[in-house]
Structures are given as C-alpha cells and as structure tokens.
Design a protein that fits this description.
This protein has 18 helices and 19 strands. The chain is of the alpha/beta class. It folds into 4 domains: 8-162, Alpha-D-Glucose-1,6-Bisphosphate, Chain A, domain 3, CATH 3.40.120; 188-203 and 211-302, Alpha-D-Glucose-1,6-Bisphosphate, subunit A, domain 3 (Alpha-D-Glucose-1,6-Bisphosphate, Chain A, domain 3); 304-449, 3-Layer(aba) Sandwich (Alpha-D-Glucose-1,6-Bisphosphate, Chain A, domain 3), CATH 3.40.120; 457-550, 2-Layer Sandwich (TATA-Binding Protein), CATH 3.30.310.50. The protein has a 5-stranded mixed β-sheet with strand order 1-3-2-4-5, with helices on both faces. Helix 10 packs antiparallel against helix 14 (404-419), helix 10 (304-322) crosses helix 15 and helix 13 (387-397) packs across helix 14. The longest helix is centred in the middle third of the chain and has 19 residues, at 304-322. The termini are far apart. Bound molecules: 1,6-di-O-phosphono-alpha-D-glucopyranose (G16). Residues 30-31, 70-71, 282, 286-287, 357-359, 376, 378, 380, 506-509, 513 line the site of 1,6-di-O-phosphono-alpha-D-glucopyranose.
Length: 555
C-alpha cells in the first residue's frame, strides 16, 4: 500500500474543527444519517473521509455526498452517499459508515486505517467526490465539513451547491459513464430532460381531456427553484404555477409527505377549477404525488402506486407495439394500497413484488426485470431498463425495414428512457413522464383516478421510548418483537372486511409508523386507532395521547 497522505491529519481536523460531542450512537439508515442539524458536523466530516476512501476503492470513480433531510422538518439535516452508478451506497459500506460515525475522535485515525487495510486502498491513487446540498440554512456549513473530510485525505472534491438529490445522483452517473448518461452539469440535466420531454410530447399541448395546466407545490425546498429553472427554458410547453417556492419553512404544512400522510391540500394551494392537476414534491425533490379536488371540494390523492400503474400501462403498450419480448415488473412496499396491487395483478397482469421500505430495496429488486417500475406509495420511485432492453429497443428503432408503428414505438421508448432518471426517484422527471402519458392518453385526473379504486387508508406516527424494540419480517408486513404485538394486530384486523395493518419503526424519524387500510372510511379509522393503541401500550408509547384524527396524524 503506497501512502502519500499523512493520516494524522484526520485526528487534527477532527479535534480542531469537527469534534464529536455527541455520545449517543447514530446509524446509517433508510436514507443515510438523519437527525438534528446541530448534531451532524462531525458525521459530515467523517462522511467526507469515507466517500474519498470509497472512491479510491472504486478506482477513482466519482462518489456522491448529498446533504439533505429530504421530507424531514427544517431543524433536521442528513447525509446520504451515492455509489458510482448513481445508486444508493452498497450495503456493506453502510456498516462502515455507521462505525466511522460512532468512533471517538481519538480512534478515528485507526478506524480509517482499518478500512484502508481491509480494502487494500492505495492512498496515493486518484479520487473524486461530488457534493450537493438542499436549501436548508445549515446545509452550507455541513457541506464545508464534508469537503474538509475529503481534503484531509487529499481527495478531490467538487461542490454543486444547491441541487436536488436526484440531480446529484445524475451528475455522479454522468461523470462515471464519461458523459454517456449525460453531461454532468446543471444545464446538462435540464437539457437532457427537456429534449426527451419535447420528443415525446410533440407540439400538441392539449389533447382530449388533458389540459396544459398544473399547480406545483415546491415544499419550500430546492425542487421549487429547479422547477422554475426548467420553466425558464420551456416556453409554456408546460403551464405550471409553482407555489411554496421558499417563502415558508421547508416541508412545513406542505410537500409530498404532508399531502400523502395527511391526505390534505398543502398550504397556499391557489384556488382553481375542480379537477385541476396538482403536484406536490418533497424537500429534496425525490418524491412526487398528484392530487386534485372535485366539485364538492373533496380531496383526492394520486400517489406513487398510481404513478407506477400509469407508467406500467404506458410501457406495456409501447413494448407490445415494438414487438419485443421483454419482462416488465412492478416493485412496491407494504404501504402499497391493496386496490393498486389487485389492479396490477388482475387488470394489468404484470408481476408485482413487495420489498421492505427504502429505495435501495426497490431499486435492487427492479433490476431483476427487463423493465422494472418501482414506486413507494409515498411517491418515491422510477423505472430501470436493462442493457438488453436498451439494445433491443435501439435495434428496432434503427431498422428501417420494420413497420412504421413499430419503429415509432421504439423511438418513444428510447425517449422515455431519456426522460426518466434511472439512478433514483426524481420528482421533476417523474412528473414530466406523468404529463407525457396523460397527454398521450388524452386523460384528465378523473380518467387516471378511475382506473381503479383505492381502499381507504390511514397512517399514524407513534412516539415510543425506543422505536427499535419493534422488529419486523416478511417485507415489514409482520412484527417479530415485541412479543404479542403481531397476534394482537391479527386479532384486530380480522374484525374488519378487507382490513390490513402493519407497524414498523421509521428509518428517518424517531417514531413508529402504523399503516391501516379497510373497506370503509369508518372501519379504517377504527382499525388504525385500535392498532395504534396496541402499539402504544406494548412498545412503550410516550408523548401525545393517541387520538384518531381525520388525517391519521397524532394530535
Ligand atoms: C426516505 C427513503 C424512502 C422512505 C422514506 C421514509 O425518503 O428514501 O425510501 O420511504 O425515507 O422512510 P421511513 O418510513 O423509514 O421513515 P426521503 O424522501 O425522506 O429521503
């Protein structure tokens, strides 16, 4: 192992600038590290170290470090690492991240040495780390800490400033594919998506019931700014009104998580005609949900399940027209509404898999298909296409001896691959594809909504002393501990027609989540309340008294 780095710098930096003052351990969870921003300086510094090591292990390929707490409230922040293909950090390195974050300052150097030895890292070799952040006021300070971690190991760091999470994933893959995936700049990202959007949508902005009008809740996050950048470059091809642009606190009473869990309008939604399409994204723009109100002002949600089914229908049609034999599959989590799963299996007749919460689980499962559509009900998802798919479709598009319809479908499929961000869920790219499909079908939200009926569903957040006493199995659909909880849930669920409920500890917030669905609104309210009471009692509930509210949130 050659080493041109003085590893004592690691401790010097830590002691002087990023001392670990926190004594409780932190874990690299569903979406990296996430907690109160003022507890994260040392974690960020250490993730700068780790990203540099990872880059050197990967032969100098670019690793991404995104500073964001995504859907969490303003005081929180967090960090997630991005692997060379724009994917979430590999599992085994999650443990290294946790270990590195939790050692004392004094042991930090030896922990780094351990990683260097285990992975036989040449510390004199090239490295590249891309860093981006959301628009929280504490993000710039945390970004500096990451950069200092990279510099402590004499690595190369490039900051993209304020970007959405999916933009940074895109930049990482562009850089490692030597430009084949796109140009690793902000402008490159806009142009790639806009070009594909134009190719698919053509000049016809309105068609059938589809109207070119959209209300866009930016959740006061970075996605609002980037949407405005898109619109500047798009000459009214998409008529979007952006609100919650940053005037309020990030994710407060707005954003995809608020809309999905509360099943309610975000703050500031402009008055509009019934059935106007509305979109809500989260703080770092990796999730999107649609919603609308009807003539009685009743709220209706079109969540990740709806987007997945819309995509699957569109893709199946194109694949059939291309006359290529490709295996398409949909990946969901336990949160997927039973109505959507029935529709996928019985109407679309597409294979459907269920995996634990967390994009990495969905992404990996989706890679098993030629075309894998994955979505969490919360609006986090995308489509992945295998190399075989891309090659077969290109071959059809380039074969002038085939019939026109076949070639046209192949070209559309190629543009669909371009408009979608394959690296990770991307709210804006996902929204573009929804708009393309609705316009192509001549559909308004009512047509989309009527494809199937969701079972009434509710979610609750329960505060407990230690959420990790709840462990689960079967893609989180069954509780293992504490003892007696699963039996209790089974007994309650059995009382309600089409009832289903599960309980799991959140990976991003210090709470336990309870999900329930049932045949009627009244039933689901009782079901979620009963299961929540049970969890509260058996898992050591603390904090606010439980009360069943219309939107399922604790009072
Ligand atoms: C993150 C993850 C998602 C997950 C969500 C909620 O989203 O990327 O896969 O569904 O957290 O996770 P949990 O229920 O464990 O708190 P985001 O948008 O916050 O990065």
């Amino acid at each position: 192992m050659s080493s041109s780095v003085n590893l004592r710098t690691i401790y010097a930096f830590a002691r002087e600038m990023y001392p670990k003052k926190v004594t409780t351990n932190i874990e690299y969870g569903t979406a990296g590290f996430r907690t109160k921003a003022d507890k994260l300086d040392y974690v960020m510094y250490r993730m700068g170290l780790l990203a540099t090591l990872r880059s050197r292990v990967k032969g100098g390929q670019t690793i991404g470090v995104m500073i964001t707490a995504s859907h969490n409230p303003e005081p929180d922040n967090g960090v997630k690492l991005i692997d060379p293909r724009g994917e979430m950090l590999e599992n085994s390195w999650e443990q290294l991240a946790t270990d590195l974050a939790n050692v004392s300052d004094k042991d930090l150097q030896s922990e780094v040495e351990k990683v260097i030895q285990t992975h036989n890292i040449d510390m004199g070799s090239a490295s590249s780390v891309f860093v981006g952040m959301d628009n929280r006021y504490h993000s710039p300070g945390l970004l500096k800490a990451v950069s200092d971690g990279v510099l402590a190991l004499k690595g190369n760091v490039k900051s993209f400033g304020i970007v959405t999470t999916p933009m940074l994933h895109y930049m990482v893959l562009c850089s490692n594919s030597c430009g084949a995936y796109g140009t690793p700049t902000e402008e490159g990202y806009y142009q790639k998506l806009i070009t594909a959007f134009r190719a698919l949508r053509g000049s016809e902005c309105e068609r059938g019931n589809y109207k070119n009008q959209l209300l866009f809740d930016g959740s006061n996050g970075v996605g609002a700014r980037k949407m405005l950048q898109f619109l500047k470059r798009m000459n009214d091809e998409l008529n979007v009104t952006v609100y919650n642009q940053g005037e309020g606190k990030i994710n407060e009473n707005c954003g995809a998580d608020y809309v999905k869990i509360g099943q309610t309008l975000p703050i500031g939604t402009p008055d509009s005609e019934p059935y106007t399409r509305c979109v809500s994204i989260d703080g770092d723009a990796d999730r999107v949900v649609y919603f609308f109100t009807d003539e009685k002002k009743k709220f209706h949600l079109l969540d990740g399940d709806r987007i997945a089914t819309l995509y699957a229908g569109y893709l199946m049609d194109l694949v059939t027209k291309c006359e290529i034999d490709l295996k398409l599959g949909i990946v969901q989590t336990a949160y997927a509404n039973g109505g959507s799963t029935d529709y996928i299996e019985k109407e679309l007749k597409v294979p459907v898999a269920c995996v634990p919460t967390g994009v990495k689980h969905l992404h990996h499962k989706a890679l098993e298909y030629d075309i894998g559509v994955y979505f969490e009900a919360n609006g986090h998802g995308t489509i992945v296409f295998s190399e075989h798919t891309k090659e077969s479709v290109r071959a059809v598009a380039d074969n002038s001896e085939l019939n026109e319809e076949q070639i046209e479908a192949a070209k559309k499929l190629l543009s669909t691959i371009e408009v979608i961000n394959e690296t990770v869920g991307d709210a804006i790219s996902d929204m573009f594809l929804v708009e393309i499909i609705l316009q192509s079908n001549g559909w308004d939200v009512k047509d989309w909504y009527n494809t199937y009926t969701d079972l009434p569903n509710l979610q609750k957040k329960i505060c407990v002393a230690n959420r990790n006493i709840i462990t689960t199995t079967d893609a989180e659909r069954k509780v293992v501990t504490p003892e007696g909880l699963q039996n209790g849930i089974d007994e309650i669920v059995a009382k309600y027609p089409r009832g289903r409920s599960f309980v799991r500890p959140s990976g991003t917030e210090d709470i336990v989540r309870v999900y329930a669905e049932a045949a009627t609104n009244e039933d689901v309210e009782h079901l979620v309340a009963e299961v929540s009471q049970l969890v509260y009692g058996l898992a050591g509930g603390i904090g606010p008294e439980l009360n069943s509210t219309a939107n399922g949130l604790p009072n």
